[in-house]
Amino acid sequence: MSPSYGRGLLHLAAAIDQSAVFDAGSHVELARLAERGGLDFITLDDTFGRPGPDALSVLARVAPATSRIGLVPTVTTTHTEPFHVQAAVATLDWVSRGRAGWRIDVSATEGEARLFGRRRAVAADELWREAGQVADVAARLWDSWEDDAEIRDVPTGRFLDRDKLHHVDFAGDSFSVKGPSIVPRPPQGHPVRVVDATEGHARPVAARYADVALVQAVSPAQAGAVRDELRRRAAEFGRGPDVPRVLAGLLVDLGDGEHAAEPGHGGGGPRQTAQGPLYRGGPVDLAELIAAWYKDGVVDGFHLTPAEPRRDLERLVNGTVALLQHRGLFRTFYPGSTLREHLGLARPANRYAVTGGTS
Length: 359
Description:
By secondary structure, the protein is of the alpha/beta class. The chain has helices at about 25-35, 55-60, 80-95, 110-115, 125-140, 205-210, 220-235, 285-295, 310-325, 340-345, 350-355, and strands at about 10-15, 40-45, 70-75, 100-105, 150-155, 160, 170, 175, 190-195, 210-215, 245-255, 270-275, 275-280, 300-305. The protein is built from 11 helices and 14 strands.
């Protein structure tokens, strides 16, 4: 069935965060459920500010247990080594066969800084400026291997064409990287970069580097205003008119089942809480909300965080997603195999192969 509003199909993603859960099997179960619903990707949050498993490692375990859904861990750029971060994300792209993303975040508290003892906590604008530089050098390192750099010629003993490996020679404000990477160029070229652009400090990074921007909003007007700002800034950096993809972030509580949404929820929109915009109601009302915002053209889709992971994700997939599929607004199958294909994003050209950069 063709889309009802003359646009491409909307994009849907879900968080599979679970407090104090270290069992990988639980994450696999949620990922498979989201994949059954055809969601573009799942996210798994991470922070140095609370105990919990490493998100990237968990999703590396999820990768072989799934086949299509995108896998997007949060990996902070603060107190971490940019070279190691990009190599880890590239490795996730390899083990998932092109389904990796990277939710870029910063660590702003003094408590997180004391865990490492390297420097004091600094202002958010400085942290996000550094995050932008890490996003930049990561892309350069992903390009430091040309796609055909590996020869693997057993008779001659040649594994690499050294002319197709490149030094990036990057110097940031707080780090420098020579390169090349230790991991071959990822299957997607560049794994998908995701930034929560709700706060103003993160928006320059989202506009310049993100493939997907998340925006917490309680109304279509609020979401549309941020989307317009991000697209305008992205154009100033020479990016295409539809980048980044902008997804509205909502916490969803579907515990009321098929009952009508509470006042201030459902078709009237979510309400602001300490945890962010909250929708509380049934799957049908949520489908109506998603369709209405999408019809208004203010977002490209939604990133939904279930209040109770197993219960609400199941109701989301079996109820809300099924209704959106029936209306022709969301896919019924994955037409491609990579996260970039799910999102309608082209595989980036290698900057060094294009420019003939020297190694």
